[in-house]
Design a protein that fits this description.
The structure holds 2 protein chains of 2 kinds. Chain A has a single domain, classed as ABC transporter involved in vitamin B12 uptake, BtuC (Orthogonal Bundle). Chain A has 14 helices and no strands. Chain A has helices at 7-14, 18-44, 47-66, 71-88, 97-117, 123-130, 138-167, 169-174, 179-201, 206-210, 212-217, 224-248, 253-278, 280-284. Mean pLDDT of chain A is 89; it is low at 285-297. Chain B is α/β, with parallel strands linked by helices. Chain B has 2 domains: 1-87 and 169-275, Rossmann fold; 99-168, no CATH class. In chain B, a hairpin with a 2-residue loop joins strand 1 (16-27) and strand 2 (30-41). In chain B, helix 2 packs across helix 3 and helix 3 crosses helix 4 (153-165). The longest helix of chain B is centred in the last third of the chain and has 18 residues, at 183-200. Chain B is globular, with a radius of gyration of 19 Å. Chain B starts with 15 loop residues before the first strand and ends in an 11-residue tail after the last strand. Classes of the chains: A mainly alpha, B alpha/beta. Chain A binds chain B through residues 43, 45, 156-161, 163-165, 167-168, 170-177, 218-219, 222-225, 227, 288-293, 295, and chain B through 64, 66, 83-86, 88, 90-92, 94, 98-104, 107-108, 111-112, 114-123, 145, 147, 149-152, 155, 163-164.
Chain lengths: 297, 275
């Protein structure tokens, strides 16, 4: 299969194969949901909690493999359990690095034991850790779609109160919003999204799909709705281009997806720094207000 | 002369914004303040003053329905306090906002109007207009497109004020809005708030450490110290005898040539710490 500049023909070539179609479909669903949830992760400063939930999910997935169950169910069980725990511990629990890190390390260790007890292939561990988007079955795509639709529907209902409570906790509480319930709902949505995103990039690279696109998007627009949309576009771009390249190059898809997300992040941060440096205002006076850093958008 | 500590509510009809009758508040086994009876009339600009941990924010929590009085009765805008009262606009005490908050100020102000609404819906025209109007009323139109993380303390307080104003509340509760501002910015913000009180007739309670930037605009002072609450016009409450009675130790109120007030001896070393 050779690359041609007629991208439509290229895609048509790829999509002759079911595994590529499945990969594109599942990747698209995950990218959309992860892009939106990622924006709220960035707003709530729950990036480390997201990373940790992926690791918690690892032991769930490894346990499921050991018992011969679809790893995604193990992931769902453990990430929802972990997410619920974090939400119930209180409003600021998801920013407690040390407690979360302690549980994270234990969960990785637990996953390791499960895998060593499992006498099958080491590839199982590899695919949980780094993703196996090319191995998703049609049934897997359907499951991903169902989960994606549920997350999307719940988000549509709670989006504005969730945004408000993430941005301005005290006022939202005084306005009568159920803070604990919103925090819990968010952690469960996050857990479900992570469980399916693991298929695409694996638990170790979850950050690149769940956080990096949104972190890039907030540097491009200050409007929450636009930021969520830009975040989705970046996730989609990374997944699609990653899959596309992987068709021609013999390296793991996850590597391409992660690299594209990273490259866009570096590009945007670098571009913002450059434009701030070039802008005459910033060079003329050291404005005390500008401690927030470059603001090019 | 009747004592500022034991004055009973003058007006108990529906025109009072706040009526407190022998209210006691506390956390678990600790009383924060007790036996507080006072009233605030509609359209009054009131400063809430007192040492750290004396229970100023606790008063706001009571009014917002986030906490209940242990004894006594409290009425806010003619009804018992309840959480989620849209007739009250609230600006909590915020120490900092993260520099990394890349969110436009107008988005926060809009959430002040629509953030409690569930269900899908794209930005409503009416919400955007209300947010613009609120920003304009605090002289912050040009701040709408700035990101929260890049704002100075004074700019942030204006945006928070607009966020609290956006639903056209009848009462504003402002917790330490002046705490991170220099004297000039403090006076500017007080001017903005005072203008709102006058033009909108919105009852406003403002918690402050220093009464001096406020003193010319105030109708009333609620002074909380030593577990007691004293209320009245500034010239009645901010006197040596009245504050000495409140603190239970000799306190002196000094005036400088420009009308600034200094309170000496009030910070009692045996003052219980904040819960």
């Amino acid at each position: 299969m050779t690359f041609s500049w007629n991208l439509v023909t290229d895609l048509r070539d790829m999509w002759q194969y079911a595994f590529m179609r499945n990969a594109f479909e599942a990747g698209t669903i995950v990218a959309i949901v992860a892009g939106i949830i990622g924006y709220i992760v960035v707003l709530r400063r729950s990036a480390f909690a997201t990373h940790a939930l992926g690791h918690v999910g690892f032991s769930g997935a490894a346990g499921a493999v050991l018992f011969g169950v679809n790893p995604v169910y193990g992931l769902l069980l453990f990430t929802i359990g972990g997410g619920t725990g974090m939400a119930l511990l209180g409003r600021r629990a998801s920013t407690r690095d040390i407690e979360i890190g302690t549980v994270l390390a234990f969960m990785l260790g637990l996953g390791l034991v499960f895998l060593s007890l499992y006498t099958g292939y080491a590839t199982e561990a590899y695919s949980i850790l780094f993703g196996e988007i090319l191995g998703i079955s049609s049934a897997g795509v359907l499951l991903t779609l169902e989960a994606g639709l549920i997350v999307f529907a719940v988000l549509a209902i709670i989006y504005r109160p969730l945004l408000f409570s993430s941005l301005d906790e005290d006022v939202a509480e005084a306005k009568g919003l159920p803070m604990m319930a919103l925090g819990l709902a968010f952690m469960i949505l996050l857990a479900v999204t992570i469980s399916f995103a693991v298929q695409v990039v694996g638990v170790l690279l979850i950050f690149a799909l769940m956080v990096t696109p949104a972190a890039t998007a907030v540097r491009l627009t200050k409007r929450p709705l636009y930021a969520a949309i830009v975040s989705v576009v970046i996730s989609l771009f990374a997944v699609w281009v990653g899959l596309f390249i992987s068709w021609y190059e013999p390296y793991p898809v996850s590597f391409f997806i992660v690299s594209i997300a990273f490259a866009l992040y570096v590009l945007v941060r670098g571009g913002a720094a450059l434009s701030a440096w070039l802008s005459p205002r910033a060079r003329a006076v050291a404005v005390p207000d500008s401690q927030a850093g470059p603001e090019s958008a | 002369m009747s004592s500022v500590l034991s004055s009973s509510p003058d007006v108990v009809d529906g025109s009072a914004a706040i009526v407190a009758d022998h209210v006691e508040v506390g956390y678990r086994n600790k009383v924060v303040w007790h036996d507080a009876s006072f009233d605030v009339q509609r359209g009054e600009f009131v400063a809430v003053i007192g040492p750290n941990g004396s229970g100023k924010t606790t008063l706001f929590r009571l009014l917002l329905g986030l906490q209940r009085p242990r004894r006594g009765s409290l009425t806010v805008l003619g009804e018992p306090p309840r959480r989620g009262n849209v007739r009250i606009g609230y600006v909590p005490q915020r120490h900092t906002i993260d520099n990394d908050t890349h969110v436009a100020a107008s988005a926060l102000v809009r959430l002040g109007a629509s953030g409690s609404r569930w269900g899908p819906g794209v930005a409503f025209r009416a919400v955007a207009d209300a947010a613009d109007e609120a920003l304009a009323s605090v002289g912050a139109t040009e701040l709408g497109s700035k990101s929260l993380g890049s704002m100075s303390g004074g700019e942030l307080q204006r945006v928070f004020l607009a966020e609290a104003l956006v639903g056209n509340p009848e009462m504003l509760l402002l917790d330490e809005p002046l705490s991170n501002l220099d004297l000039r910015r403090s006076r500017e913000l007080v001017e903005v708030v005072h203008e709102l009180v006058r033009s909108r007739h919105v009852t406003t309670l403002l918690v402050a450490h220093d009464i001096n930037p406020l003193i010319e605009c105030l109708d009333k002072v609620i002074y909380i110290a030593n577990g007691h609450v004293a209320t009245g016009p500034p010239e009645t409450v901010l006197t040596s005898p009245s504050l000495s009675e409140l603190y239970g130790v000799p306190v002196e109120v000094l005036h400088d040539s420009r009308g600034n007030i200094v309170i000496v001896g009030g910070e009692n070393p045996h003052e219980p710490e904040a819960p």
